[in-house]
Amino acid sequence: MADYNTQIIEEFRANEGRVGGNFAGAPLLLLHTTGARSGEERVHPMMYRAVDGGWAVFASKAGADTHPAWYHNLLAHPAAGIEVGTEYRTVTARVAEGAEREAIWTAQKADYPGFAGYEAKTSRVIPVVVLEPTG
Prior knowledge:
Distance between the termini: 32 Å
Number of helices: 4
Radius of gyration: 14 Å
Helix content: 25-40%
Order of helices and strands: HEEEEHEEHHE
Strand content: 25-35%
Number of strands: 7
Shape: globular
């Protein structure tokens, strides 16, 4: 998986935020987190949804029964960074709850049905994380 992500990250940076393959045409960002245990910077390519005041990302882990590592990293260290296109922004992460989460999640599933498939594969509630700009 690390090699796969490395290829996406390299392609993203070489093409001003655009990639081919499974992510061709999809809104993609690079999320920079601080490791919850290691304290080391980690970079994660992922789809996002623009929302009022920021960007929403989805801790789907392709429908696995556990949350992705980046989600645990953000819970431990909500100060993060994102690359969108050629721009780098600092952000603060927060987990969307209630009606806010439901509205964002429903829209994401409607636009990208693969997310509904991820939801069907797991019994956990897939967290929606809002990344709000800090500067």
